[in-house]
Amino acid sequence: VVGISKVANITNESVNKKDTLLDDIHIKEEKNLLLFRIKTKTKHAIALSYVERLEEFKYSDLEYSGGHYLVRYGDVILPLVCVSESLLDKPFESFEDDSDKKIYVIVIEKRSQFYGLVVEEIFDTLSTRQDLELPLDNNKMIFGHLNMKDELI
Fold it and tell me: Residue 54 to residues 3, 62, 122, 149: CA-CA distances in angstroms?
């Protein structure tokens, strides 16, 4: 803290004033995101810090139990969450006629449990300091939007 205050030329006198340099300093935190697509043309993103792994599974690897798709993932059972179904009310596709078709899964860990987020396509990572714009509604799965130069994320 002392080193930062010296670099910013902040003294005890300037900190005690109402209009300090600190009021004008806005440090934008860098966001590292994984970009993916669901059943829309808009790209979506998840914070890279949540991502454990990226996986591909054949539909023939999936099992259905208790109203949920599951897949064996090493020595654990990985529950699958279809992001399109959760966000858009579009059901999990049935690939029974094409058991070699692949699904793309973003593996996350929450409360010591692994989950697989099923997405249509995984693109790349993105690092940005741009602030998120708040979503239009109170959807608990969307934290905000990024208005990038060429696209909305």
Answer: 40, 16, 9, 27
For residues 76, 111, 106, 141, the Cα torsion angle rounded to the nearest 10 degrees is 140
Per-residue pLDDT at 38: 85
What is the C-alpha separation between 106 and 122, in angstroms, rounded? Answer: 8
- H-state helical runs in 2-153: 2-7, 12-16, 21-24, 83-88
**Structure-token pair, residue 100:** 């070699």
The token duo for 122 is: 């995984």
Task: Tell me the whole-structure pTM to 2 decimals.
Answer: 0.69
Residue carrying structure tokens 């990226």: 54
Name 60's Cβ contacts closer than 8 Å, sequence gap at least 6: 99, 100
Per-residue pLDDT of 58-90, as tens digits, reads: 988 999 888 888 999 989 999 998 887 777 666
